Amino acid sequence: MSSSEGGLTKPHLAHHFETIEKQDYAVRLGMWLFLGTEVLLFAGLFLGYTVYRHFYYEAFHQASRHLALWAGTTNTIVLITSSLSVALAYHAIKQNKKKQCAALLIFTILCAFVFLGIKAFEYREKFLEGALPGAHYHFAEVTAPGANLYYTIYFLSTGLHAIHVIVGMSILIWILARVLKGEFSATNYVPVELGGLYWHLVDLVWIFLFPLLYLI
Amino acid sequence: MSQPSQLSTEHPDKPVIPAVNYLNADRGVWSWLTTIDHKRIGVMYLVSVLIAFLLGGIFAMALRLELLTPGPTIMGANTYNRMFTLHGVVMIFLFMIPAIPGVFGNFLLPLMLGAKDVAFPRLNLLSLYLYWTGATLALSGMIMGGTDTGWTFYAPYSTTTPMTLFPVLLGVFILGFSSILTGLNFIVTVHTLRAPGMGWMRLQLFVWAIYATSIIQVLATPVIGLTVMLIGIEKVGHFGLFDPSRGGDPVLFQHMFWFYSHPAVYIMVLPSMGVISEAIAAFARKNIFGYKMIAYSSLGIAFVGFFAWGHHMFVSGQSSLDNGAFAAISMLVGVFTAIKVFNWVATLYRGSIAVKTPLVYICGFLFFVVFGGMTGIAVATVSLDVHWHDTYFVIAHFHFIMVGAVIMAFLIALHYWFPKMFGRMYHEGWGMVAASLIVLGFNATFIPQFLLGNAGMPRRYYIYPERYQALNVASTAGASLLAFGFLIILIYLIYALVRGPIAGDNPWDSRGYEWMTTSPPPKHNFDVTPVITQDSHSYQEPGEEVEHVVI
Fold first, then answer.
1. Residue B545 falls within a domain, yes or no?
2. CATH number, position B388
3. Which of A38, A156, A196, B297 makes an SS bond possible with B339, Cβ 3.0 to 4.6 Å?
4. How near does any CA of chain A get to the CA of B122, in Å?
């Protein structure tokens, strides 16, 4: 593998594909289908949210006032910015700007760390307050029936999302390592694209979680 | 070599097994465990699901033995509960869901498309390893801890039972991943790896069926993954999501569970329908009737199947409006199934029928799927379901579909493609004996259960009033016949594997694309990439004009 800035690397063509184009089409289609399954994985929790919000409107309304709005808003900005930077990284590698691509990926990964840090701080607050799921709930400020279920949904959905942030971050670190080794170039960039797509999904799920949990 | 029409012209005098084929191209256990060859993965799935089937069958026999007498016969209530859970979980998650896609989908899909492999061969191997991991976890969890919830894991019982559930739930979660990856792989394969000349309307109907199945696998399975994890979290962490004492709703669990588990019925049944479409054309020696209708009805079932889950919950406190809507949608499945059945029967009509072992199963299948389907319409009717809910009537109904349709199709596939996979032929006489025993034994097992259910015998009890005994004895006797039939198949297939006569490349003279290559196929399927110039299932004599059926 050439590591110079101008080196155009070639992707590996598997034995059962005729052309690189077909292979690229196949992996993109596979990734989109996989993202579809991810959306459906979260769909169950969104369903739970809808049902219990309908059952316990008052509790859900009150409990959502007790989330740290500044933390949620900052995290939203951080994630949207990171989505932009990962898209720019993809744009850079397509133009063979490997160093720029690497820098943008590093920025994206840093954003992920910031997001997790703020999330950890929020979780800590909730633990201290006793705003915990189900049986562990002992938060004095919201006593309306069903408030414990709000925090069940809150922890399950943001927890599952945080797992996805960690997975997405790991994928980006792996791609960054390969970018630094000079494996990708203007002629070989599909893995960067796929990693970016996964990161966009992580972002997208948060875009829905944020208003549902913090704003309304 | 490249055109199916050339294959049918003559048999070589003495068929031979190709000296180098996928079975012996690489040697040693390690070469199997690290293979990315879809055919070898298919064969490993075959061994795995057969073991699962054997286990599930043993559990079923234990259940039937227990029900031989009204009182306790060979086990107590707790063992019985664990036994029917084992039977359900093993048969559904370890056998029926991966059976036809995992074994025959893997083996045949690339061959039918004229491709060298599936789109993601390594992912395919990962699916198999995930299957093994999930199976080991689920089985060891059930044997060591014991699970007594039934395969449905209904809350709040599942979250309060003293038994350990977590390993089983984790096992089911991992099995779901395996299923998703297989489905994803197949969809991409059908989209990207069709041979030159293979348009969508030239796909074999088995490919259409697997494609429709894969869509369900990809869309529905993530939901069951999440749902079983929620039950696990609930049980370990008491999050209250399905716990009424904390405001949770157990019926929500039922909705989420059946959102997957009803479409899962079609994950099991659609591939079977694909098998029938292939085999019926081959044994009627006639072009399949209504190709497009059969293909589209697979997609129709896949679509409608997503909106029918509520018919499992007629007595769970749904509104009358929901009940009515779910009942009506459920009946649409019957419409699509009937379209297929009519087309299959029309394919048989005036065909040159070859009465071979698979054809006996085909006839069995047609009867079972109609009977099971009709009783399905009956239980989808709200007022009738209230009477039959949780009785043996429902048990008999879904066994007609799952055993009657899915296992018949699995056996058809096993017999029809056995020479393709291993290059050898089984003993036709014993095949006929076993087929007759199984069709007979099946009826004897499950028809009494319809009567028992209608008389009010509930499911999942290990004792029953004496007036139900005669029919239970009949059912157990039938189950023994079934078991005996399966034993015969096992013996003659193992014998055929070692000593069976060499089958030749295309012993059925079939026009399926998968027979265009040698049997067993070479490592990369085709020496030359085939070019498709004819529609599939085209049984005209060469030179005769292809007849298009317009509907």
1. no
2. 1.20.210.10
3. B297
4. 11
In a domain, B489, yes or no: yes
The class that CATH gives domain A20-215 is mainly alpha
| Contact between chains at B116 and A16 (C-beta distance less than 8 A) | yes
Q: Given pLDDT bands bounded at 50, 70 and 90, which one contains residue A5?
A: low
Which of B192, B193, B528 is the best mutation test for A, with the most CBs of A within 10 A?
Answer: B192
**8 Å CB contact of B246 and A134:** yes
Burial of B242 by CB count in 10 Å (0-12 exposed, 13-18 middle, 19+ buried)? buried
Closest CB to B218 among A37, A47, A153: A37
Looking at residue B391, what DSSP letter applies? Answer: B
Backbone Cα Rg of chain A: 21
Q: Tell if the CB–CB gap between A44 and B230 is shorter than 8 Å.
A: yes
- For residues A178 and A93, give the distance between their C-alpha atoms in angstroms, rounded to a whole number: 12
> Measured on CA atoms in the order B211, B214, B218, B220, is the torsion positive or negative?
positive
Which of A15, A51, A149 shows the shortest C-beta gap to B240?
A149
Question: What is d(CA B234, CA B244) in angstroms, rounded to the nearest whole number?
Answer: 12
Nearest in space to B383 (alpha carbons), one of B278, B311, B295, B459: B311
pLDDT tens digits for range B40-81: 999 999 999 999 999 999 999 999 999 999 999 999 999 999
Tokens of B188: 């991409």
By Cβ distance, the residue of B240, B249, B524 closest to A51 is B249
Cα separation of A23 and A26, whole Å?
A: 5
Beta bridge partners of B424: B502
**Distance in Å, alpha carbon of A57 to nearest chain B alpha carbon:** 13
Q: Give ∠ CA B30-B34-B35 in degrees, rounded to 5.
A: 110
Kindly state whether residue B223 falls inside one of the protein's structural domains.
Answer: yes
The overall pTM is greater than 0.90: yes
Task: Please give the biggest Cα pair distance in chain B.
Answer: 76
What is the average per-residue pLDDT within A80-94? 96
Q: What residues does each domain of chain A span? A: 20-215
Out of A29, A37, A134, closest to residue B222 by CB: A37
Q: Which residues of B touch A40 (CB under 8 A)?
A: 219-220, 222-223
Interface size between A and B, measured as CB pairs under 8 A:
116
H-only helix segments in B193-288: 205-237, 250-284
> Residue B338: exposed, middle, or buried by beta-carbon count in 10 A (0-12, 13-18, 19+)?
middle
DSSP A89-157: HHHHHHTT-HHHHHHHHHHHHHHHHHHHHHHHHHHHHHHHHT--SGGG---SS--STTHHHHHHHHHHH
CB nearest to B180's CB, from A37, A47, A55: A37
Mean pLDDT computed over every residue of chain B: 91
| Cα–Cα–Cα angle for B354, B356, B362, rounded to 5 degrees | 95
pLDDT of residue B540: 72
Average pLDDT, chain A: 92
Structural domain harbouring B369? 30-516
Instruction: Indicate the residue type of B450.
Output: F
Among chain A, residues having any CB pair with chain B shorter than 8 Å are 14-17, 22, 25-27, 29-30, 33-34, 36-38, 40-45, 47-48, 51-52, 55-56, 133-136, 145-146, 148-149, 152-153, 155-156
- Measured between alpha carbons, how far is B297 from A9 in angstroms, rounded to an integer? 46
B543 part of a folded domain: no
d(CA B35, CA B524): 12
pLDDT value of position B445: 96
Provide the ipTM: 0.92
Q: Which residues of chain A neighbour B218 with C-beta distances below 8 Å?
A: 33, 36-37
CA-nearest residue of chain A to B223?
Answer: A41
Q: How many domains does chain B have?
A: 1
Which of B120, B123, B238 is the closest to A134 by Cβ? B238
